[in-house]
Amino acid sequence: MPLAASNHGTLHYGVVDLVAPWQRPRLPILFHHGIGASAGIWDGWRPALADAHRLVTFDMRGYGRSNIPAADFRWSLDLLVEDLFAVADAAGIERFHLAGESIGGTVALAAALARPARIATLTVSNGAHVGASIQRVEAWRRQLDEGGSKGWSDAFLRDRFHDDALSAERRAWFAAEQEKWTRDSILNALGVLIGTDLTSRLGELRCPVLLLHPDGSPFIPVSVMAALHEGLSDGELNVFGRSRHGLPFSHAAQCAQALRTFLDSRKAD
């Protein structure tokens, strides 16, 4: 089981390398999932990308086979950025394309600002440069206290997907993965976003940035993503109709194709 060492426990990661041996490989892509999601949400992205890129995914801190911190552990955005680079180092990738969804998108933005030389391009899906609201933390805490992880997950699924967005099998799989998250990891990870505001630093981003956003996220209005786009020197914004906060899973093929087109058009290795 591949594990990346960090200053605070290990992080489980996986590598998919399907690039033909006679083909010159392009730069790898590292994916960062968000709260309630898992590394498996990126599986639907493989067909559009795996022929040319090595793909690296991992369980973010607080979930799955990665370190599950104690309730009183101090989470921070800097910590999650260091986790991301610990995985990259363990996977042996120096410079890479970075894609993150939800809080993973916020972490990806911070990572590109922290170590710009290592990030070739950045993709943010249903994420933002500014934090969530205190009200959302309180709503999630109440759902978790009253209904446990399943009660919270059931409510969150309605925020993620339209009723007809997924097959019954895919919805059941996602629900089961989401319900594995613990109360403390959910609330502490979400707490990282409170007060986060990278607005003043957006002009420092020099790599090309692809923004993928749902038209119906209850957490991040399209106007917030539009503001992020306006703050970038080299950005492209794609808004997907009839989609919610589970965009990278419900629209995996479309999102992956958008990323492939973006990389090909920019001639980004």
Give a written overview of the molecule.
- The protein has 9 helices and 8 strands.
- The chain has 269 residues and is of the alpha/beta class.
- Strands 1-2-4-3-5-6-7-8 form an 8-stranded mixed sheet, sandwiched between helices.
- β7 (209-214), α7 and β8 (235-240) form a beta-alpha-beta unit.
- The longest helix has 27 residues, at 134-160.
- It is globular, with a radius of gyration of 17 Å.
- The two termini are 29 Å apart.
- The mean pLDDT is 96.
Entry summary:
This protein has one domain (3-265): Rossmann fold. It has nine helices and eight strands. It has helices at residues 46-49, 77-90, 103-114, 134-160, 168-178, 183-193, 222-230, 247-250, 252-265; strands at 3-6, 9-16, 26-32, 53-58, 96-101, 119-125, 209-214, 235-240.
